């Protein structure tokens, strides 16, 4: 979000989506500006719920330097909020980190870069794109164009091939080794119009009888893969022509493989 956009936000216009654009000092400025509003005291719990969607927030009950220092040592930033002349709060807040795929939500997926997404995927991956739960895939694809391909190591970086074209088109790529083959996962942030379209189905709960035909959003699962499931384990011996796949169509002549494996005279 642009700086002008941050300045235009107030506590009253803050949402669980746009709060991800902010940092601790932005929240502090909003709170300071709201101290002049008579309804701050009545709505402070509502604002806290929204802020907690993107920040760790703790109320400091004991106003002593040594207590505050303990929070600051944990990378929290501390501010004092005056609700009225006789009441004040001390809040310690820290922006939540997006470290694992299970940290991704429909609210924050539109506020990270493709490079950050690849970093998160690389930290969590083992079995490739298909190891992610469907709900996590849906969240990621609501903000990013995703495509995958599995190719022999020597073929993946072939000049003029899909890898080179995707990177030239602005895609970030994660390579996952699978024996002598590599799964490549390409990610590119969707244009704003597409992101808005992709998330347009996220609505407030409907009253009974109101558009009940709409499909429910998938629940976000706590675990995204099951490494104990033998069916999901990668078996290099099964990578034959039948299992060779890609989500991107390429020239069939370039992708031709012999029925019993890659022939010696194929130029990779």
3D structure, described in words:
By secondary structure, the chain is α+β, with helices and mostly antiparallel strands. It has two domains: 3-95, no CATH class; 105-201 and 237-247, no CATH class. Helix content is 30%, strand content 18%. The chain has ten helices and six strands; from the N terminus they run αααβαββααβααββαα. The strands form two sheets. A three-stranded antiparallel beta sheet has the order 1-3-2. A three-stranded antiparallel beta sheet has the order 4-6-5, sandwiched between helices.
Q: Layout of SSEs?
A:
Elements: H1 3-8, H2 24-34, H3 40-52, E1 55-59, H4 65-73, E2 77-84, E3 87-95, H5 114-124, H6 134-141, E4 144-152, H7 153-156, H8 162-168, E5 172-178, E6 181-189, H9 192-198, H10 252-255
Antiparallel strand pairs: 1-3, 2-3, 4-6, 5-6
Keywords, separated by commas or semicolons:
elongated, alpha+beta, 2 domains, disordered C terminus, 268 residues, 3-stranded antiparallel β-sheet, 10 helices, disordered N terminus
Question: How are strands sequenced across the largest beta sheet?
Answer: 1-3-2
The total beta strand count reads 6
* Average pLDDT: 77
The end-to-end distance, rounded to whole angstroms, is: 44 Å
- Which stretches are low in confidence, meaning pLDDT under 50 for 5 or more residues running? 1-5, 194-246, 248-268
Estimate what percentage of residues fall within beta strands: 15-25%
Q: By helix and strand content, what is the structural category?
A: alpha+beta
Count of discrete structural domains: 2
